[in-house]
Write a structure and sequence with these properties.
This protein is mostly helical. It is built from 3 helices and 2 strands, in the order H-E-H-E-H. Strands 1-2 form a two-stranded antiparallel ribbon. The protein has 2 domains: about 1-60, no CATH class; about 65-90, no CATH class. Helix content is about 20%, strand content about 5%.
Length: about 90
């Protein structure tokens, strides 16, 4: 009881809470097991595609086709391809 009443909260680092989410209402959040997009802070422009990929629990909805990599018919270019292209310019 004394610990909870008398000790202050101690912040260990800034901004750790920005990627918290739950799947009670919305599901298909990108994460390590479902890596269709990378985790992005909700206030950042790179988080916009997440709004197209999540859906209400119980609904069946896939991530839009344009979110796929170019080899699968989408618009995204894999980072590995970009790095390979950059390496080839150095030769």
């Amino acid at each position: 009881e004394i610990v909870y009443r008398d000790l202050p909260g101690i912040v260990l680092f800034y901004g750790a809470h920005w990627y918290e989410y739950n799947e009670k209402v919305w599901t298909n959040w990108p994460n390590a097991k479902n890596p269709w997009w990378y985790p992005a802070a909700p206030w950042h422009l790179s988080a916009l595609p997440v709004t197209f990929g999540i859906h209400r629990v119980g609904e069946v909805k896939k991530v839009p086709k344009w979110m796929e990599t170019v080899d699968k018919g989408g618009f995204l270019i894999p980072t590995s391809e970009i790095m390979a292209d950059l390496q080839s310019t150095l030769k």
